[in-house]
Amino acid sequence: xxxxxxxxxxxxxxxxxxxxxxxxxxxxxxxxxxxxxxxxxxxxxxxxxxxxxxxxxxxxxxxxxxxxxxxxxxxxxxxxxxxxxxxxxxxxxxxxxxxxxxxxxxxxxxxxxxxxxxxxxxxxxxxxxxxxxxxxxxxxxxxxxxxxxxxxxxxxxxxxxxxxxxxxxxxxxxxxxxxxxxxxxxxxxxxxxxxxxxxxxxxxxxxxxxxxxxxxxxxxxxxxxxxxxxxxxxxxxxxxxxxxxxxxxxxxxxxxxxxxxxxxxxxxxxxxxxxxxxxxxxxxxxxxxxxxxxxxxxxxxxxxxxxxxxxxxxxxxxxxxxxxxxxxxxxxxxxxxxxxxxx
Length: 343
Description:
4% helix, globular, 29 strands
């Protein structure tokens, strides 16, 4: 029995029937890369942290404005450093595991007030190299989020960037999911090329949110295979973006909010949507919906443990956080029992 599983069993026995905090909407989940019992969630109001697998939570929002946090990224080498992307106030950084936050807007001045930081992504194995997907484009930092520079050369038809993916085998290769499909860079985001064949019809490309990409992921076992989750379904390329095909036609809902690829099992992926969580074991050809135990199936966030890919968390739209320790076969609520707060 893992330390995390033991802590979770204690959580269920102590709190599982109280229903504490289950009215919360959880929009983001971030897991510590090496310590299974530490995780962060963002709700519509605050950031919370647990150090014991969910038995106790703390409000970790000191230093932030009231802008909603919708993106979290933990430094893979120094996990006390955390970046938070907001809806209207650019990026914040914590140097002490979320105890205090400071605004980090140098180079991001245009990404304030009316703009959104949709996603923050650290380059593989790097503590300093990080990218931000925002409603005003792609931004890059080479100093851990202290300063930022815009990287939109070649993205002439679009402005809003929702999701970014970095090839784990070749970090100079990036994909950007935008309001008008997918763009690819092979030089570390210095230049971008549109790769939309089979993905976006030419007659609707100029329409805002013509596809609505929500997540994009590079297959860790085959970098030429990339998956794109959109508001209109799931797509796949097997040739590095040269052409795309629609997959997942049997999914119960095609307005996809989340996408995960299992780094430990080839061909295993998960999507989140308005009708729950679905899992595929054959690269997206066939699907099984795994909702047992979920009291709300409107999924807002999905996260997978880096230590054990069978451990999953999902954030729902109004019923809080749920945990699965068996690859989504069953889910249990993780009550938001707040034991302390930081004002």
